[in-house]
């Protein structure tokens, strides 16, 4: 009886590992092409990096600007700005608040959630604010490649969620960084699916409104 060569077994094993990532990559990229902006109770803006000196990274600035446009177009009366401090001060949420305020968005339309340090925490804490206000629907703003995972997490938390991409972000607009971040999202999704039964029972992190 013939046995398969070790190299062939290795190739089969590698194919089994890679195939789900390729599938997820294609799903993430397909979702990234769609702007599903719809009227909602709130617009949740997911944070991104803050540069030294409290400067918004290009991604953070693009997300905030897109959320401002959606607010002005009447998609929702309130923005939840979600993101804690991840190295540089102030928090991502505070930098977004300053950008929105400077753009003329009224203070009572801005809710700051500055305790989150991951996408999961962004959405858990934002849902806590949404629930406290009696809302059910959320329009999520982030980079295009991030929306598939963000929407999946939001719906797992019980939100009625729609995603709208900040396409002016360099991370989404240029092919090489977009491919890199999309691949990273595929890996993050594998981890999320593997740990979802545990994550779904975690309590929300305290948040400031």
Characterization of this structure:
By secondary structure, the protein is α/β, with parallel strands linked by helices. The chain has one domain (24-199): Rossmann fold (3-Layer(aba) Sandwich). 51% of the residues lie in helices and 14% in strands. The protein has helices spanning 6-32, 58-72, 92-102, 119-132, 147-156, 170-173, 175-199, and strands spanning 42-46, 50-51, 55-56, 79-82, 110-113, 137-142, 160-165. It has a 5-stranded parallel sheet with strand order 5-4-1-6-7, with helices on both faces. Strands 2-3 form a two-stranded antiparallel ribbon. Strand 6 (137-142), helix 5 (147-156) and strand 7 (160-165) form a beta-alpha-beta unit. Helix 1 packs across helix 7 (175-199) and helix 2 (58-72) crosses helix 3. The longest helix has 27 residues, at 6-32. It starts with 5 loop residues before the first helix and ends in a 10-residue tail after the last helix.
Distance between the termini: 69 Å
Q: What structural category arises from helix and sheet content?
A: alpha/beta
Supply the number of structural domains: 1
| Percent of residues in β-strands | 5-15%
Backbone shape: globular
Radius of gyration: 19 Å
Task: Compute the average pLDDT.
Answer: 89
In the CATH scheme, the class would be Alpha Beta
> What is the assigned CATH homologous superfamily?
HUPs
- Predict the CATH topology: Rossmann fold
**What string gives the helices and strands in order?**
HEEEHEHEHEHEHH
**What can be said about the biggest beta sheet?**
5 strands, parallel
Count of helices? Answer: 7
Poorly predicted sequence stretches spanning 5 or more consecutive residues: 203-209
Number of strands: 7
CATH architecture assignment: 3-Layer(aba) Sandwich
What portion of residues is helical?
40-55%
- How is the largest sheet built, in terms of strand order? 5-4-1-6-7
